[in-house]
């Protein structure tokens, strides 16, 4: 055979060639050969010991979302493997590359119903774009290399199951890896004829808008330029927050429920939607797209074009290239009444949010907490946002710019995402300030991994919005006219628990304590858990507004404004009339 190398170490060399920096997981008997290889290569790859494999999978997924590079996690046979599913499905549904290494009993014990042995290959079939069990030691580095290439190609999850004995064997050093030679695929150029057709539709429209999805990431200047040049208000998908500044006048925010008021109203009022790099399922499932609305759709994936709605002009193109061409081949529109109305509507909404953020009443309000987060933000922060009311409130109250990063569990919407995402954020961007924003329900699911933050000495600011409710679900029960059941939570002193784990725990009940807590968090040299006890108020339901006399009674409007402290909030119809929009 000539010169040899341990197969598990060869696998690590493949990961190194693909520029993998961290691997997340928990050791187990069926994955010990991988653990030994990680020990040998510890100077080149950081093994991050999480306290639950689910958190490791979230961290790997968040790494991929934040960087575009593959995230790697592992789990041992049986329970270690099954614990990965939440994070892997999050990666699948948000279309990011993740590699999951799965332990398996040794080949001699397979098919004997051995301890923790499971037929793992079919388990991972649905979540993965590539799913293989390694059959020989010689093929181990090849299968892992192939898995990573497939994960990148398909923007999905690749799963490699490794019988433990194979990673211990010696193989020839003539294996190879393709990481160093990987080339990003060329993105399609826009068709000039179709660009012309798109511009003609925009010219004819009275109320054209942009709906921008994750495909506009990295195209901040082009998106703002297109919006200004053709006077198109911009509605964003939630996961795209921060792509353009929140203070850009035409940024209407997001739509449907995890949304802003202007985002929904702008979408409802549109007669033409320029859909750019977005896959918005609520457009169909919640009937948010009117049948008479025309669509221009720009996407690099032909399978996405026409998936959610009829398309009048299909542009298979890189978003940045298409937006540049739309600007270059058109005359600037200096004035559009609908644009002006939307800008005025957004100013009214921002004034409402500021009113809520400025409150100093006690019990504390959620807006007051976000005011402090915005106060200490550095301008290049990472926000790892969990799922629930905290997602909606983060989209509304965080004042972000394109230098900051925002990550959440979007389509899978799994609670518990925040801690793992924050760990990945701080390890990936050690010089940045990193926040984990979570409700008390989500935090309690995964709070053991504050221990990981402590062990890795990660100065993450964990902000817990404690209202002793599954608020998001409670609101759904109200909307469905159910009696509240199963949505109340047992409270806890999360600050005391955090202190017991070696973090800095701070309990907050008053406005004075709130300000002091964030001042302390900024200078802490390790993880901080700020447990803020807030009032259990429902956020304003942007998907079910009761503000317009044309659709709501005077009694409904008065009650809606009273409940949500929205006396000065106006429906978009006020501004459509003011600017005489057709």
Plain-language structure description:
The chain is an alpha/beta fold. It has three domains: 4-181, 3-Layer(aba) Sandwich (Rossmann fold); 192-335, Rossmann fold; 359-533, Thiamin diphosphate (ThDP)-binding fold, Pyr/PP domains (Rossmann fold). 39% of the residues lie in helices and 16% in strands. It has a six-stranded parallel beta sheet with strand order 15-14-16-17-19-18, sandwiched between helices. Strands 10-9-11-12-13 form a five-stranded parallel beta sheet, with helices on both faces. Helix 9 runs parallel beside helix 12 (319-328), helix 13 crosses helix 14 and helix 14 runs parallel beside helix 21 (511-523). The longest helix has 21 residues, at 337-357. The protein is globular, with a radius of gyration of 25 Å. The termini are far apart. The relative contact order is 0.10.
List keywords for this structure.
582 residues, Rossmann fold, five-stranded parallel β-sheet, pyruvate, TPP_enzyme_TPP-bd, magnesium ion binding, Pyruvate oxidase
